Amino acid sequence: MRGGRHVAAVSGASFDLAAGECLALVGESGCGKSVLASALLGLLPGNAQTAGTATVAGTELLGADEHTLALTVRGRLVGLVPQSPAAHLTPVRTVGAQIEETLRELTGLSRKAARSAAVAAAERAAFPADHLDRYPHELSGGLAQRAATALALIGDAPLLLADEPTTGLDRDLVNRTADELRRHTDDGRALLMITHDLAAAERIADRVAVMYAGRIVELTGARGFFGESGPRHPYARGLLNALPERDFTAVPGLPPELSDLPEGCAFAARCDRAGERCAVRPAFTDGVACHHPVTPAAARAASTKDVHRA
Ligand SMILES: Nc1ncnc2c1ncn2[C@@H]1O[C@H](COP(=O)(O)OP(=O)(O)OP(=O)(O)O)[C@@H](O)[C@H]1O
Ligand code: NI
């Protein structure tokens, strides 16, 4: 940034995704989820610096040249449902034309075959066939979302990144879209779903990664995360408790500035379990980055207490 300032948008993210698996990436606005997705597709701004490694099916993505990214990565190895679909669709071409072009490019269909295949491709994302001749600005937010999802599903990429794929959709469409994305993992493809919608994550995810201030602070099985014992990181527990159907109490305070991160645990200032040790940044071990994670037994006890209180 100007003045030599650095924004540590993503500073510690290590995970793997198995064939056929769905991982949900959750965390507060601004914690680095979309930057992580952009990094995997080589879509970061020119002044961004990346380090580390990220491979999909043997291809290194970080630092791959533009030629590789364009011809083998984007849409083919890694698909993307972008966070702001209206901004990613080409404004001067109809949705149908964009779907047909994508079909021709990624599946090699002829122009004529692509025309009829476009209806089926749209249908996969519940995009109405009679809207295919519309331009992006003629679509509602939810329709643009569905158009972007239809485009992202076409390549059947081994890894699909879906960045907030259910924003602006009503609950039944959320479920339908989430289920269609989940079907992408049939035949051994993987899905990384970035979402604020924990109900959608619970519906389709096998594992959940929780991000805070640019770091993954917990990575755990979805059943445990949403189940009786719940997550172990205090922030992850706070995220869940903020849900209306749970405590409906937000985590107090705000996340730190990513250009001015504290040396120790970035969550300490907001954490009711914080102590002296938290002045040192906790390493990510055993699925959690915290000096005093909630133990499963204590978590279960707390959850029965909550039931009694309710
Ligand atoms: N081009 C950029 N230049 C400077 N800072 C950026 C840039 N893009 C993102 N950031 C910063 O990186 C951080 C992470 O942004 P990111 O978009 O990944 O958040 P997010 O977790 O996806 O949030 P949301 O849930 O709101 O989409 C933010 O603090 C943001 O301000
Ligand atoms: Ni985002």
UniProtKB/TrEMBL annotation:
SUPFAM superfamilies xrefs = P-loop containing nucleoside triphosphate hydrolases (SSF52540)
Q: Name one GO cellular component term.
A: plasma membrane
The record's top EC class is translocase
> What GO terms in the biological process aspect are recorded for it?
peptide transport
Which cell locations does it reside in?
Answer: Cell membrane
Which PROSITE patterns does this one have? ABC_TRANSPORTER_2
The UniProt keywords, alphabetically, are: ATP-binding, Cell membrane, Ion transport, Membrane, Nickel, Nickel transport, Nucleotide-binding, Translocase, Transport
Reactions listed under catalytic activity: Ni(2+)(out) + ATP + H2O = Ni(2+)(in) + ADP + phosphate + H(+)
InterPro entries for the chain: AAA+_ATPase, ABC_Ni/Peptide_Import, ABC_transporter-like_ATP-bd, Oligopep_ABC_C, P-loop_NTPase
Hey, which family's this protein in? Answer: Belongs to the ABC transporter superfamily.
Q: What is this protein called?
A: Nickel import system ATP-binding protein NikD
Q: Which organism is it from?
A: Streptomyces tsukubensis (strain DSM 42081 / NBRC 108919 / NRRL 18488 / 9993)
